[in-house]
Design brief:
Strand 1 and strand 2 form a beta hairpin. 33% of the residues lie in helices and 18% in strands. It is of the alpha+beta class. The protein folds into three domains: 292 residues, Endonuclease/exonuclease/phosphatase (Deoxyribonuclease I, Chain A), CATH 3.60.10; 177 residues, no CATH class; 68 residues, no CATH class. Helix 3 runs parallel beside helix 4, helix 6 packs antiparallel against helix 14 and helix 12 packs across helix 14. The longest helix is centred in the C-terminal third of the chain and has 35 residues. The strands form seven sheets. A six-stranded mixed beta sheet has the order 5-6-4-3-16-15, with no helix packed on it. 31% of the residues are buried. The N and C termini lie far apart (79 Å). The chain has 14 helices and 22 strands.
């Protein structure tokens, strides 16, 4: 017979394990409540102080499909209040790039439905977006690939937070292998945590026959008199009990059932989980949006990178610069015999000229998105203030007020974004560069993850990330030493010529012809000389460049300074998730304009 029709054994077991104050655990602690009674505290005990800073917020919802609302989700992610956004039933596939969803504020981690985790081709899927300043790390294991779930970790002040978003399809809630694999992942994370760390597992479990009753601490236990347990549900709850996680969501849907569950590490008092004041994009039947508050804000020192002043070549005094270069005595200021020293002299002189005639500017990050109008910014300030008040009190009146302001804001935001896109489309003829920049931004994966791995080493700041990429790219080059015999054998296959490198003459006309082929650009390599400057000031530079190239040819040496270049890591292929290992990137090199 079906185990649901004979719940007696399971009910008796859960009366023992999950009834208030009777949960069996070898690590029990006690404290006095209301100076009159004792309450068991399940270990490992986690002490939390109520921080004076704003709490961290996790938004959760079953999205019931995102494909028809991609632009709406992009707009929602671009100015969301939340530090974490977890969604199930995303229905996404590899046709939707991660850059289509998350703005610059979030790193997104996805697990779309595929052959490895489902026999169905569509539906399902989960994702979690984490604010970039929290520097999230994804935790992956090939043994968990049959699950629609994502694990991430975040280092907070003095502790780590592990978050899992998971989706169990209705037809697989009795799949023992699926449940066992999920519990194995939970226990694997539990084995690595310290006593002060915390685990959160949230998702759509599709267990409508479980009913929950509250403990005095605010945590919930399955009500044995109302719930029906099948074997897999029993194994699932056993696994969470072994990992010392307890359920906290008792916000039922319109049918009085709770399909979305949230399990967190046991502590003195359950964290606050309420209805979100408004859905991120749309309301979904049977799945109300939820908001989980964490007591303590991340207090790690995070600062936006300070942008150093840089040259504004668009405002260059090219007339003054050209005049100074024309009257400069290059013959007596460039080394006549050593090409390396001559190039160093040239770069030093040109750099000094740039400092005189090119103004500097400090580049500040854009405070507002390009489609945000003045009225939209005003509404956003009101919305943010209302959300803070609601987060602190949770009253129904503030929730209704927030919904009203949020709806007005979303309507205006959608209209502003539509006007911005129409404006970009109209510029196809007048400003095609801006149009294609917008298009490319929509279809390319841009930027780097906040954490990069190489073998067993991890880096989470700019200098260390650059060091790991440098080590990776250097490893693919082979410094091969050839013998004289090998060189002779290779040379014998090359046709003989009466010319030699030293006999090649480079004159002013060759330099002028090469410079005219450079693409106009104000971007420069490590030498700091952009192509636009070379093209506009070539009459004053041609003498010096001719000397440098002739010296290089006659000596048979390529200047060391011109071997420097900027190298950019580029994704090897189009992806739908954030890549975090250097193995998944290839390098792209930006050479110097002078040596090109």
């Amino acid at each position: 017979m079906d185990s649901e029709s004979q719940p007696t054994l399971a009910q008796d077991k859960y009366r023992t394990l999950y009834a208030p104050d009777n949960r069996q655990n070898p690590c029990l602690h006690f404290r006095t409540l209301d100076n009159s009674s004792s309450q068991p505290i399940i270990g490992p005990r986690i002490s939390y102080s109520h921080a004076t800073n704003s709490p961290l917020h996790l938004y959760y919802q079953n999205a019931s499909g995102m494909n028809s609302n991609i632009d709406d989700y992009l707009l929602a992610f671009s100015d969301s209040h939340y530090d974490f956004i977890a969604l199930t039933e995303t229905w996404l596939d590899d046709r939707t790039l991660t850059s289509h969803l998350f703005g610059a504020e979030y790193e997104g981690f996805r697990c779309d439905r595929g052959p490895q985790n489902s026999q169905k081709k569509t539906g399902g899927g989960v994702l979690i977006a984490v604010r970039c300043s929290l520097k999230p790390r994804q935790i992956v294991d090939a043994a968990w690939n049959n699950l629609e779930q994502v694990w991430v970790s975040v280092q907070l002040s003095g502790r780590k937070l592990y978050i899992c978003v998971v989706y169990f399809p209705p037809e697989r809630t009795r799949d023992k292998q699926l449940i066992d694999t999920h519990i194995q992942s939970v226990l694997a994370i539990h084995d690595r945590v310290k006593r002060c760390d915390e685990i959160v597992v949230i998702g759509d479990f599709n267990l409508p026959n479980l009913y929950w009753a509250p403990k005095r601490s605010g945590f919930l236990y399955p009500d044995p008199d109302r719930s029906n347990y099948h074997a897999c549900a029993l194994n699932l709850l056993d696994g969470y009990n072994a990992a010392m996680l307890e359920q906290i969501n008792n916000n039922v849907n319109e049918n009085g059932r709770c399909l979305d569950l949230c399990f967190v590490s046991t502590r003195d008092i359950a964290p606050r989980l309420t209805f979100a004041p408004a859905p991120l994009v749309k309301t979904v039947s049977h799945h109300p949006a939820l908001l989980l508050d964490f007591d303590e804000q991340n207090s790690l020192d995070y600062q936006e990178p300070v942008q150093q002043p840089r040259y504004d070549f668009k405002r260059t005094d090219y007339d003054g610069l050209l005049e100074a270069l024309l009257i400069f005595d290059w013959a007596n200021n460039l080394n006549p015999t050593d090409v390396d020293m001559a190039v160093d002299d040239f770069l030093s002189i040109v750099t000094g000229m740039i400092a005189r005639f090119v103004p500097r500017k400090r580049v500040r990050p854009h405070k507002y998105l390009p489609w945000q109008s003045t009225e939209l910014r005003r509404l956003k300030r009101i919305k943010n203030a209302t959300f803070k008040r609601y987060s602190a009190s949770g009253t129904l009146s503030l929730r209704n007020h927030y919904r009203s302001v949020n709806q007005e804001y979303k309507t205006l935001r959608r209209r502003c974004y539509a006007n911005y896109r129409r404006k970009i489309e109209r510029k196809l003829k007048t400003d095609p560069k801006q149009f294609w920049n917008f298009v490319n931004a929509q279809r390319k994966e841009t930027g780097l993850p906040s954490v990069v791995e190489l073998a067993t080493e991890k880096a989470d700041n700019s200098s260390d990330i650059c060091r790991l990429f440098a080590a990776k790219f250097a490893s693919v080059f082979v410094d091969e030493s050839l013998t004289t015999t090998q060189i002779s054998a290779a040379a014998s296959k090359v046709a003989l010529s009466s010319s030699s490198i030293a006999s090649i003459d480079i004159d002013d006309r060759a330099i002028l012809a090469a410079v005219t082929k450079l693409k106009n650009s104000n971007w420069s390599g490590p030498d700091g000389i952009p192509a636009t400057l070379l093209k506009k000031c070539i009459p004053g530079l041609v003498t010096a460049l001719t000397h440098l190239f002739r010296l290089s040819m006659s000596s048979g040496r390529f200047p060391l300074a011109w071997k420097q270049a900027y190298m950019f890591p580029v994704h090897k292929k189009v992806i739908v998730a954030i890549l975090t290992t250097t193995e998944e990137y290839r390098h792209c090199v930006l050479h110097l304009n002078c040596s090109s």
